C-alpha cells in the first residue's frame, strides 16, 4: 500500500481501491516508525509500547520482534524474527545473536504478542528474556526491555523489574 501525505499532514491512499483494516494498521505502523526516526531515541517504555502495539496487536498468531538500537538508543532496525501459532512462538538465541551482529546493535527491545489479548507475561516469557539477556551480553548488546502486547494492553518487563 502506498500512502501520500499532503502539506497539511493528511494521508490518503495512492489508489482508488477500498482501504482494509490491514491497510490502516500498516499506515499506523509506518507513521509511528517515522516518529521514532524523528525522535532519534526511545525515551520511555510508553513510546516503545505505542509502536509495538500498532505492529503486533492485530496479529492472530504470536510473533517475536526486536527493535535494534545503537549506543544512544537510536532505532537501527525493527525486525520480526520468529512467527509462531496462536499460543506460542519458538525463539532461538543463535538467530537473535546473528541478527544483532548483522545490525551492529548496541541494545535491544524485545517484543511479542499474545493473540489471546492477555498481556500478562508467562513464566516462559520471563525465561526467554533472561536467556536472551545473558546471550546478548556475551556480544555486548544490552536488553533494555521486553514488551508483551495483548490486544491494546502492553506489559513492560523492565517496568516490573524483570529485565
Write a concise synopsis of the structure shown.
This protein has about 160 residues and is α+β, with helices and mostly antiparallel strands.
Any overview of this molecule?
By secondary structure, this protein is an alpha+beta fold. It has a single domain (41-156), classed as Cytidine Deaminase, domain 2 (3-Layer(aba) Sandwich), CATH 3.40.140. 35% of the residues lie in helices and 26% in strands. The strands form 2 sheets. The chain has a 5-stranded mixed sheet, with helices on both faces. A two-stranded antiparallel ribbon has the order 1-2. Helix 1 (21-39) runs antiparallel to helix 2 (45-56) and helix 3 (93-103) packs across helix 4. The radius of gyration is 16 Å and the shape is globular. It starts with a strand and ends in a 7-residue tail after the last strand. The relative contact order is 0.14. The mean pLDDT is 87. Pfam families: RadC. Keywords: Hydrolase, Metal-binding, Metalloprotease, Protease, Zinc. Residues 41-163 form the MPN domain. This is DNA repair protein RadC. One of its GO terms (molecular function) is metal ion binding.
Major β-sheet annotation: 5 strands, mixed
* CATH superfamily heading: Cytidine Deaminase, domain 2
- Give the class-level CATH name: Alpha Beta
Give Rg in angstroms. 16 Å
Please give the share of residues in helix: 25-40%
Q: Helical element count?
A: 4
Order of helices and strands: EEHHEEHEHEE
In percent terms, what proportion of residues is strand?
25-35%
**Overall mean pLDDT score?**
87
Amino acid at each position: 500500500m502506498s500512502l501520500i501525505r499532503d502539506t497539511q499532514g493528511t494521508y490518503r491512499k495512492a489508489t482508488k481501491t477500498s482501504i482494509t483494516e490491514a491497510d490502516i494498521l500498516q499506515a499506523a505502523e509506518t507513521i509511528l516508525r517515522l516518529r521514532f526516526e524523528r525522535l532519534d531515541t526511545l525515551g520511555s517504555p510508553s513510546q516503545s509500547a505505542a509502536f509495538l502495539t500498532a505492529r503486533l496487536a492485530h496479529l492472530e498468531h504470536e510473533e517475536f520482534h526486536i527493535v535494534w538500537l545503537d549506543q544512544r538508543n537510536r532505532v537501527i532496525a525493527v525486525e520480526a524474527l520468529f512467527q509462531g501459532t496462536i499460543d506460542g512462538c519458538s525463539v532461538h538465541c543463535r538467530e537473535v545473536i546473528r541478527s544483532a551482529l548483522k545490525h551492529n546493535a548496541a541494545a535491544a527491545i524485545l517484543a511479542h504478542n499474545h493473540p489471546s489479548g492477555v498481556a500478562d507475561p508467562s513464566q516462559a516469557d520471563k525465561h526467554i528474556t533472561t536467556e536472551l539477556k545473558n546471550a546478548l551480553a556475551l556480544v555486548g548488546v544490552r536488553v533494555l526491555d521486553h514488551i508483551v502486547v495483548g490486544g491494546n494492553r502492553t506489559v513492560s518487563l523492565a517496568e516490573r523489574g524483570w529485565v
